[in-house]
Design brief:
- The structure holds 2 protein chains of 2 kinds.
- By secondary structure, chain A is of the alpha/beta class.
- Chain A has helices at about 10-20, 25-40, 45-60, 65-75, 80-90, 95-110, 120-155, 160-165, 175-185, 210-220, 250-265, 280-285, 290-300, 310-325, 345-355, 380-385, 395-405, 420-424; strands at about 195-200, 205, 230-235, 240-245, 270-275, 280, 330-335, 360-365, 390.
- Chain A is built from 18 helices and 9 strands.
- In chain A, helix 3 (about 45-60) runs antiparallel to helix 4 (about 65-75) and helix 9 packs parallel to helix 11.
- Chain B has 3 domains: about 10-75 and about 120-200, P-loop containing nucleotide triphosphate hydrolases (Rossmann fold, 3-Layer(aba) Sandwich); about 80-115, no CATH class; about 205-305.
- In chain B, about 50% of the residues lie in helices and about 15% in strands.
- Chain B has helices at about 10-20, 25-35, 50-60, 75-80, 85-100, 105-110, 120-125, 145-160, 190-195, 205-215, 220-235, 245-260, 265-275, 280-285, 290-305, and strands at about 40-45, 65-70, 80-85, 115-120, 135-140, 160-165, 170, 175-180, 195-200.
- In chain B, the strands form 3 sheets. Chain B has a 5-stranded parallel sheet with strand order 2-5-8-1-9.
- In chain B, a hairpin with a 3-residue loop joins strand 6 and strand 7 (about 170).
- The chains are: A alpha/beta, B alpha/beta.
């Protein structure tokens, strides 16, 4: 390039120092980078050097060139644009103003970064305190159930066995703890599907020419032993949509634990919660520590235990997320009781679209455990015709059955759906 | 150095314009940086906003070879980087045998030499063309491949070199110009993005879209172009599953010219809506009264503008 600095043997950083010794721009870019980092953008020293180089390349004659040069380096996802834009306008107008603004800005732009180390004990402490309070308020409820449980305990062989069939809704705090432990060990072994990649194999029909040629050379070329390869398999992506409305509230915590276990067990899992609006909580649930993960989820979600607008939420999912997360033939698990505040308005169309864009749609419904369950609600009637599988999910054994079901190859479509459809 | 790279952001704007591409200044800045600092440019955006086109225009205006790697699931080294010509190798071994050649080393050296190497796009991109200039490498729709391939790209994008075990490391004398596009059907790993300049290609605003249409469909009547642009801009503010891109706007204008229209009317809009909207639900929603209403607003808006 014509006008790059002549001293090319220097590292970019040294060149920078060389050229920027006497002006204030480089330190300011650094400060700007640090501000963005504090606001949650992943910006390291390398990026700051890049940004300075970029600014030197475009020059600082035009504010908009300057803006877009920094933008090209610092932003690497579309959702970071807003943050960058705000920070840019504030910082490059009056850096002092920014410091005052950060306090207001920061809570609204949670970048999902790990909390700083010194912050952690505080969070833990708060959590511990809040849990204690919760326990106290729960106590009354527990006491009601205690007698019954004691009786049960006297009669059963194993606590775990009892837990298996007990409804999440009826569990006491201790039992919930035990169930959580059981769930944390659950794995979701979805049948693998063949990909378009190959791996070495001894018995398939495809000849691996490359391996064959290498083997032939190894033996000196007298004979050419054929080597084979077969398609590699891989579990498909998994998308979980979980209803967190009031009617589901007793189950929600359990499902969060379940989703956390699944998310951390395998790659390509996306999790969404919805009540009246849809929230993507994948990033929070990736946190290995379950308590931290759930706390972050709780902070991120604003519509806990409110009403349900399934149609609206699914419509959001279809429009904003389906193309990003269902692209590679995902299995979708919908956890909901199907009770919809909008009485199923627009729901059928959305669920049908969802069904058409995924590999398999499985509906888990805690209401299904009731003997007298009737698909009377309009929400349920709208969803049912479009799902591939319909299963109960209200206790540990139903979760384990689900795992078993996902482990079986394919299985007939419309499992558990047909009998209900005829009743409708 | 016969370097013909543009020397300023304005020069990039002019160059793209010369190649019939109307670009925002923001995009030109990102592209200028990528050219100037020798980094890949990572373009993300909805389908049909002109991401791939940038690579093509760039290669034409700079007079460089365009090497395009279309990504798909399962794309592997043998179809993206290199492959040995096995049948030729086999024949060569047989000939060596027939000639009574015994030395294994000699055979190995021969059959793993460059004459049996089939070069795929990424390896080709590391070679300069006849004029000595590196080519433009367009890695299209990176989101369609899988993570292992992304990881493989890291070596190429940071050092512009490829390691072939039988031969050694091939390194580009001059790094190619790399354009990567993604439709965001999944998130690309940050490690890749970190090495690139990032730009989100958005739908153009009305003024920009008008310029694009004038460049791309020069024989369209002024009035029609204005109506088309305003109509499409209106559509983009609607609640649709897939908003029409620039490519659709251009297609639609071409279609209307083929239909000999000089003025939009509800009937024409209804019958040609399939060029603009690609989902049945969307078409159903807009067709009929909705389309007529948008059209009225558009015409009223243009009348008020005049």
């Amino acid at each position: 390039m014509a006008d790059t600095p002549a001293n090319t043997d220097l590292t970019p950083g040294m060149q920078l120092l060389d050229r920027l010794d006497d002006n204030k721009l480089a330190p300011n870019i650094m400060h700007f980078g640090r501000v963005l980092r504090a606001a949650g953008l992943p910006i390291g020293p390398g990026k700051i050097i890049d940004a300075t180089l970029a600014v030197m390349a475009v020059g600082i004659q035009s504010r908009s060139d300057f803006y877009w040069a920094l933008h090209a380096v610092f932003v690497n996802r579309r959702d970071q644009h807003e943050l960058f834009d705000q920070a840019f306008h504030i910082f490059w107008k009056d850096p002092k103003l920014l410091e005052r603004m950060m306090g207001i800005l920061l809570p609204s732009v949670d970048g999902g970064e790990e909390p700083a180390p010194e912050e952690q004990p505080l969070r833990r402490l708060q959590e511990a305190l809040s849990q204690q309070q919760e326990n106290e308020s729960d106590k009354e409820e527990e006491q009601e159930q205690e007698e019954e449980i004691e009786l049960d305990a006297a009669m059963t062989v194993s606590e775990r066995e009892l837990l298996q069939t007990m409804d999440f809704e009826e569990m006491s705090a201790d039992e919930i703890e035990a169930a959580k432990r059981a769930i944390s060990h659950m794995r979701l072994p979805i049948t693998e599907i063949p990909t378009r990649r190959y791996q070495a194999s001894n018995r398939q029909a495809r000849v691996d020419m490359r391996a064959t040629m290498r083997a032939a050379l190894r033996s000196g070329g007298d004979s050419i032993p054929l080597k084979h390869r077969k398609r590699r398999t891989r579990p498909p992506p998994l998308v979980i949509l979980c209803d967190i409305s009031g009617s589901m509230s007793r189950y929600t915590r359990m499902f969060l634990h379940f989703m956390h276990a699944v998310t951390n067990d395998r790659d390509r899992v996306h999790t969404f919660l919805f009540g009246t609006r849809l929230t993507n909580v994948t990033r929070y649930l990736r946190n290995k520590d379950i308590d931290l993960a759930i706390e972050q989820v709780t902070d991120a979600v604003e519509d806990w235990s409110g009403g349900t607008r399934i149609g609206e939420s699914l419509s959001d999912f279809n429009r904003f997320w389906s193309r990003r997360v269902l692209g590679q033939g995902a299995i979708v698990i919908l956890i909901s009781d199907g009770l919809d505040r909008d009485a199923g308005r627009g729901l059928h169309m959305e669920i049908e679209r969802l069904h058409k864009s995924c590999r398999r749609l499985i509906w888990l419904n805690p209401l299904l455990r009731f003997d007298g369950f009737q698909p009377k609600s309009q929400g349920i009637q709208a969803i049912l015709p479009s799902v591939d599988e319909f299963r109960p999910v209200h206790n540990l054994s139903s979760l384990e059955e689900l795992i078993g079901a996902l482990n079986r190859p394919g299985g007939p479509r419309k499992q558990g759906v047909q009998e209900w459809l005829t009743e409708m | 150095m016969t370097d013909n790279l543009p020397s300023s952001v304005d020069a990039v704007v002019d160059m793209l314009r010369g190649g019939n591409y109307v670009a925002d200044r923001s995009l030109s800045t990102a592209l200028y940086l990528a050219l100037k600092l020798g980094r890949p440019l990572f373009l993300e955006g909805e389908a049909g906003v002109g991401k791939t086109e940038i690579g093509k225009v760039l290669s034409e205006s700079l007079g460089r070879r365009l090497i395009r790697l279309q990504c798909y699931e399962g794309l592997d080294v043998s179809s993206a980087v290199y492959e040995w010509n096995y049948s030729m190798q086999m024949i060569d071994i047989r000939i060596a045998e027939a000639a009574g050649q015994q030395s294994r080393d000699a055979i190995t050296d021969n059959i793993f030499s460059e004459k049996f190497l089939i070069k795929r796009p990424l390896l080709q991109a590391l070679e300069a063309d006849e004029s000595g200039e590196p080519p433009v490498l367009l890695i299209d729709e990176l989101d369609r491949t899988d993570e292992p391939f992304e990881a493989f790209l890291l070596e190429i994008l940071s050092d512009f070199q490829v390691t072939i075990p039988e031969i050694g490391t091939v390194k580009a004398a001059k790094p190619p110009i790399v354009i990567i596009t993604s439709n965001r059907t999944r998130e690309i790993h940050d490690a890749i993005k970190r090495r690139c300049f990032y730009f989100w290609v958005d739908y153009p605003n009305a003024q920009r879209e008008l310029e694009i249409l004038k460049v791309k469909v020069p024989d369209a009547p002024e009035k029609l172009t204005q109506q088309v642009v305003n109509f499409v801009q209106h559509l983009r503010s609607r609640d649709l599953f897939k908003l029409p891109g620039v490519a659709e706007t251009i297609d639609w204008t071409n279609a209307l010219i083929q239909l000999d229209k000089i003025d939009l009317d509800p009937e024409t809009v209804n019958s040609s809506l399939g060029v603009l909207l690609k989902y049945q639900d969307d078409i159903e929603k807009i067709q009929g009264s909705e389309a007529a209403q948008i059209l009225d607003e558009v015409k009223a808006g243009i009348a008020a503008g005049n």
